[in-house]
Fold this sequence. Notes:
The chain is an all-alpha fold. It contains 33 helices and no strands. Helix 10 crosses helix 11 (252-263). The protein starts with a helix and ends with a helix. Mean pLDDT is 87; it is low at 705-718.
Amino acid sequence: MAYHVTNNVIHVLCWLTCLWMLWCLMSTPRLAIVEREGKFFVAAAVAALWALNPVQTGAVTYLVQRMASLQALFFMAAVAAYVEGRLRLDHRRARAVLWWAMAALFSLGALLSKENSAMLPVVVALVEVAFFRPEWWQKFPARLWQGLRKPWGLLGILFIGAILFFVAHSLLDYCAKGYAIRHFTMKERVLTEARVVMRYLFAILVPHPGALSLEHDVELSRSFFTPPTTALSIATIGGLLTWAVWALPRQPLIGFGILWFFLNLVIESTVVPLELMFDHRMYLPSVGLILAAFEALRRLCSKCGLRWTVQERRKMAWSAVAVVCSVLTLITFIRNEDWESAININADAVRKAPHHPRAHANLAYALNRSGRYAEAIEAARRAVELGRDHFEEHIVASTAIVLAYVHLGDEAKALEEGERLLAMTPKAFDASALPNFLFIMAELQRKAGKYGEAFSSLQRALEVMAEFPRLRTDAAMIYSSMHRLLRDVAERQVDIDGDGMVDPGDIEPAAWLARKLYEMRDWDGAQIFAGLDPSSPVAQEVQRRIALAEDRNRTQAARWGYRKYLWRPTAFADMATGLAYWLQKQNFFKGFETIGLKLLHVAAMCRPYNPDVPLLQGWYAFEAGRVQEAVAKARQAVEMDPMSAKAWIALGFFEQKAGNLENSLAAFQQTLELYPGYPKRQVLEHLMAQLRTQIMAISLPKAPVRHAALEVNMGARP
Length: 718
């Protein structure tokens, strides 16, 4: 209850802030001719229509989306404070600076609430152009042309263009990595988002509960004409943006409102690899769209009612707004009925998105919590059926099925179903829910006497947690389960780790677990269990080894990478090395290689004993296909500093490319010896396992191959 009250209080504050921001915009020089009552009418009406629109339930009633409402609160407050300061700039500069300081604080609050507040500087610039300097917008093409005609102006524009190009290229590269876990590509997302944005637009302007859902089935756009509405949506968005730019100096509220809507959707509705559609994303953008639509409708009505007196117009306007607000309130009330319980809202999502696996999995979870176990199993099975690679809730649904059978008292069936579902896990799936599922399975296996399987499940749970650090908060339950398992096993003398010896043998369970967790490189858990039996020689040895490994990790982490040269150059050689590293990362321009190598040559002359210089030269050679040169440079770096893990790992990659598999494997082993906590250790160990397999396959003697024709002839002899 307290969470709902808090969210509604934040929403009320957002409404008041929206009213404040709109009043400030109505007070700007561009709108000075509007009478005071007219300004208040526009500001109050738009704020009310926005606050009562049912699309806001996605951000207000959905508790976790408090971040969206907080971001909107600080975002609008920052814009309002900027306008307040701008209005006082010509007369009271001290107060203007104070208002701008407040705007900076509000901006920080918006950015800490949600990352898409990065568009705030663009919106502030739009406010300046739309309401304070419209002539700048009109004269911009002429000024740009004049600048292009001057040498310094041309160089400046080219420099700015180059910076924007590099930033865009880096952003696209960064975003492209996130699509590895999505069921769509970057191109498909951008095309699909055009249709999604149009759905947002209609949901705001024509509010109806049927258009709102916790989950949405969104058909992917494979091309401009698949489905055909993709091209239509892109054309509509392009037309709206073009018209908004044209209208900005003529009808500032309409142009500003449309651009506000699209600017605040840029981050979540373009190339960033987020999910396709959520209702809460409309919370802040809808302010601009409602403002533009209301102002357009107000202008249209003012032309249609020329024979009415001013008083009659005001009465009709306020009455119309009151009626619309009443209707919106009713629709919002109806929509909130769907949020009455977890079962209601998730059942509503299943009705509206029947092919969405998460909708069914969430419904199964809600049904489980309400004791409707048979229905939960049915919903979870449907979620499993609908899942596909990178678009599934297999583990969440499997957990729901297992828990339902446990609550029904059939633990044998729960264990059987859990093992079956775990075996049919998709190749690419969301593993974030796996530790909890494995914990439940381990408890069932322990009760069933399957001690080895239980320990394997707990080991795998910890391995997954190592890949997802945010899951480490649940590590305590895994440790507790391990301790219970060891106490059970200690009485039966069973081998649970597969080493052929009974566990824990002559060692206390806590010390045995400390050693085992150290071997698994779960040092937090190892220290916890070592602390439970501090007098044990085994526990003491574990703590000594952990201290040594942590010291090595600190040493290597401080020396890893080249960013230190880029951000903290202490000499010209450092600056040259850092710039060469940056150019090596920007691999889209071939000429950068020549510049980077020349910079490294200068750095080598200034600091001939810095191993990072030949190592970076080796990476340049490696990416250019000069593998033997890369190997030679990496060996030079290793000779300069045999304790450099990053030199050894580079040598490993270079030797692998050169076909020297044994040398590559030895270099990787040395890397992990020097840097036991290497962040990508599991990836490197997987690569090392592949290298061992390849080396073994090469070393095995091949059976002689006899020619088929010879076999036939020999068989034909008497």
